[in-house]
Amino acid sequence: MTKQSDTEITAEQLREHVATLLAEHDPARTDRLDFLRARFDAGLAWVHFPVGLGGLDAPRALQSVVDSELARAGAPDNQPRKIGIGLGMAAPTILAFGTEEHKARFLRPLWTGEEVWCQLFSEPGAGSDLASLATRAVRDGSDWIVNGQKVWTSSAHTASWAIIVLRTDPDVPKHEGMSYFVLDMTAPGVEVRPLRQITGEAEFNEVFLTDVRIPDSQRLGEIGQGWQVARTTLMNERVAIGGGALPREGGMIGRLAEQWRNNPELRAPDLHDRLMRLWVSAEATRLVGERLRQQLAAGVPGPEGSGAKLAFATLNQAISGLEVELMGEQGLHYSDWTMRRPETVDFFGKDAGYRYLRAKGNSIEGGTSEVLRNVIAERVLGLPSEPRVDKDIPWKDLPR
Amino acid sequence: MTSANLLYTDVEDDLRASVRDLLSTHCDPTDVLATRESGQPYFLELWRKLAVELGVAGLHVPERQGGQGGTLRETAVIAEELGRSVAPVPFLGSTVLCTSALLGVPGSAAATLLERLAAGTATGALVAPLTSGPAGEFPTAIRVSADGGLHGTVSSVVDAAVADTLIVPALGAAGPELYAVPASAATITPSTALDLTRGIAEIALSGASGEQLATGAAAAEALNTALRTGAAILASEQLGIAQWCLDETVRYVSQRHQFGRPIGSFQALKHRLADLWLEIISARAVARYAADRIGADAEDASIAVATAQSYCAEVAVHAAEECIQLHGGIGMTWEHPAHLFLKRAKSDQLALGRPGEHRRTLSELVDLPTC
Ligand SMILES: Cc1cc2nc3c(=O)[nH]c(=O)nc-3n(C[C@H](O)[C@H](O)[C@H](O)COP(=O)(O)OP(=O)(O)OC[C@H]3O[C@@H](n4cnc5c(N)ncnc54)[C@H](O)[C@@H]3O)c2cc1C
């Protein structure tokens, strides 16, 4: 079904590329980073990217061919869970809006994981209404001087680079006065403080920016075009959070099913009915995701994408809630409240209580479920928008 | 990994277009509404066009057995379209249940009947209550007497009023048997149904003789295949019902003004419709999967069918209920077609196994047993 032009690479050719890479860089005897760099240079990092930037201009659907061949050969991966923001958000934005220098400088270490990225978008006063953000960038020669505060920044404590949206013109309506940059997290004036979450851990942080200098050469897109660039990032974020091919019972439902199978003494009729409803919903959501991938592969992306993340959040919360109840007395316990600053989000290595608490963030991070419903209603169903009071007012005059 | 194609193929899209074309000329919901109390509830001329001219009646029957050699995926697309216009035609009773019952039955009696059903020259009804699900025991309501006559009464038989041939599961001395009986040999009494667009009837047999089609395990298997296939295809009908309800409601709330703005601009309604949309795209994915798997006789076909029925039955009811509510007073009137969809959706929820029954089946199939 995949529509292939004559010039496009085939799965067979990709396998040959993989074989060559493996022959020249035996994973068993090659340093991990050297192998990853060689894989990038061979165009086998993300095959749908351009030649020279880790890809081969191949159809995105063929990535799985490469990944499974390399996994079979025991090759190291780039630990995608540690660098999700770089892979899922920064990279597509740099590809779409970066200069040739940006692409050459950033994409390779981003993909190999040598440089971790974070996303400095949300602020204390600007969450769902991101376009109201207030962190200011004032032009000073060939630099911008930045002052303000970002918040809820996942991985800011491990990141060396950030994508950031800043207010460059307060005198125009909010959507028109922003610009988009990449920021060196080690620059003077960047201060990262952990923010502890309801799980006890601190995955995210607050980031204070005091007289931080960003060279204008680190701008992505035009001055004042920040909103359009940010929308590219956000669209990719929703795909990244909701996406990913799963086998049946992959994800949280698998954990719940396993508990049910292994612990007959915990079973009860009311829990069984809820379990089966959730099993069916999880299977439906899995198949929606599968259908979405098939649409993408056939070159006809469907609006299903906006639904996948909403479904995923609702489902994860219901499943993890049921799991706590199923555990009975053990559900009263929690492994450990110690404050930590983890490098990755690990849903499965911990107990049901952790999953229940962490899943609460699924309907907030990356666009709240309420905001996603607005998006579906207006962009997919074409329903009329709400009356807008803030559209044509200069940003500086908005009530806040 | 899922290998099923969950999209619509070009062939399926073309098929949909021609069926939709026919339905939009001959089966607008308002036409359906206008004829509900006419004493002629079925659109038999439309059915002839669909069954004979478009070949819908034998779509998934192999060519060598007199059909079109298509797949159940295609039959499922027809079901979506017929659901979308609550078409009063004997598609479920004859094309889905009867042909599926006969497809695997050996012998010339079954082959001849299948050929006629597939050509649209015969119309069948499967003599089991519409509530029968694939998980049930073989029915005992009809018994075979020593002289071979069939005796008993079965109620809620779908599409029986327009059938000329009855396929009758009956209990003989040695166990399950399957017969073909001319409709003229039975007493068929149409019931007043909740669903205004799909008839049910009571069938009484008092000594009628039929042609034996299968006995023993083959008879039980034929019935089970029919009910399982029916449950799979019904999921696509439910999808079509839900899609009409969503489309119609979105259209209405975009144009109806209250408080100086379209009611569709109120977030309370937007969010309900966004949730419904999400349910419907999920229903589409599971319904496609079920049609594909059962058509391919795949290992997990039963899981796919139980999942689809469990999910889609409730989505259709939810969509129809939202449709009525978001139309306000007009949604409560006889003159608006929304109630046709509500009545169909609610009846479909009971048809071919309730969602809860399918979940129980599923729990056994995927090893998540009850206490
Ligand atoms: C675990 C986690 C990780 C995160 N990581 C990052 C990160 O790495 N980088 C980053 O920039 N941000 C990150 N965020 C921030 C996240 O994007 C914001 O929290 C989110 O966009 C909501 O903004 P807010 O917190 O200001 O809530 P608000 O926008 O104030 O929302 C409060 C409530 O009001 C509702 N609401 C708001 N507007 C509307 C509306 N128009 N209609 C209906 N309801 C509305 C919301 O749905 C919510 O229920 C993270 C958040 C979490 C929880």
Automatic annotation (TrEMBL), chain A:
One of its GO terms (molecular function) is flavin adenine dinucleotide binding. Residues 224-381 form the Acyl-CoA dehydrogenase/oxidase C-terminal domain. Residues 12-114 form the Acyl-CoA dehydrogenase/oxidase N-terminal domain. InterPro entries: Acyl-CoA_Oxase/DH_mid-dom, Acyl-CoA_Oxase/DH_mid-dom_sf, AcylCo_DH-like_C, AcylCo_DH/oxidase_C, AcylCoA_DH/ox_N, AcylCoA_DH/ox_N_sf, AcylCoA_DH/oxidase_NM_dom_sf, Mycobact_Acyl-CoA_DH. Residues 118-212 form the Acyl-CoA oxidase/dehydrogenase middle domain. One of its GO terms (cellular component) is plasma membrane. Pfam families: Acyl-CoA_dh_1, Acyl-CoA_dh_M, Acyl-CoA_dh_N. Keywords: FAD, Flavoprotein, Oxidoreductase. Its cofactor is FAD. Belongs to the acyl-CoA dehydrogenase family. This is Alkylation response protein AidB-like acyl-CoA dehydrogenase.
UniProtKB/TrEMBL annotation, chain B:
Keywords: FAD, Flavoprotein, Oxidoreductase. It comes from the Bacteria. InterPro entries: AcylCo_DH-like_C, AcylCo_DH/oxidase_C, AcylCoA_DH/ox_N, AcylCoA_DH/ox_N_sf, AcylCoA_DH/oxidase_NM_dom_sf. Residues 224-361 form the Acyl-CoA dehydrogenase/oxidase C-terminal domain. The keyword Phosphoprotein does not apply. Residues 10-102 form the Acyl-CoA dehydrogenase/oxidase N-terminal domain. Its cofactor is FAD. GO terms for molecular function: acyl-CoA dehydrogenase activity; flavin adenine dinucleotide binding. Signal peptide: none annotated. Belongs to the acyl-CoA dehydrogenase family. This is Alkylation response protein AidB-like acyl-CoA dehydrogenase. It comes from Tamaricihabitans halophyticus.
